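This part of the workshop introduces the protein records we will be handling. Each record describes a single protein and holds just a pair of labelled lines. Instead of coordinates, the fold is spelled out as a row of discrete tokens. To make this concrete, we reproduce a full record directly below:
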Amino acid sequence: MFAGKSTLEQFEKIVELLGMPDEAQKKSMQSQYIGSLLDGMQNSDSKVKTVDEQKAGWRAMYPNVGEDAHDLLACLICFDPTERMTAKHGLTHPYCAQFHDVASPEIEAKRHVSVTTQVPDTNGNNKEVIMRDNEKFKTGFYRETLYHMIKKNKK
């Protein structure tokens, strides 16, 4: 969606479409790294964009899809995670209506989702790690864990 040759170029493309996030949106991302990237882009002409301006950007990016798709993208892709449409609300969005069965209620997880996997420790030995969906890890941890899982599955 926002292919770039670097993280900075990727963020430039996102900001071009969504506009520059305001201070509250930056804070909501809870990432000093992203905040410093965006602060470094302050010289750009980009400003905070309205939802209608963002939808116009989605129309330009995906001219051959319907308005429901543009609206869904605008509801899902935004800087502030608290402003994003929830999965539960997404099921009732017109674009996803064909997947939603009003007659039978959707199943909601009663607890947080977790994945148990093995990762190498500092000595090269495997140790078991539980990755919970409500916990935030450093990017390097996710990267190394994914590489380890891929390497393990190729064997």
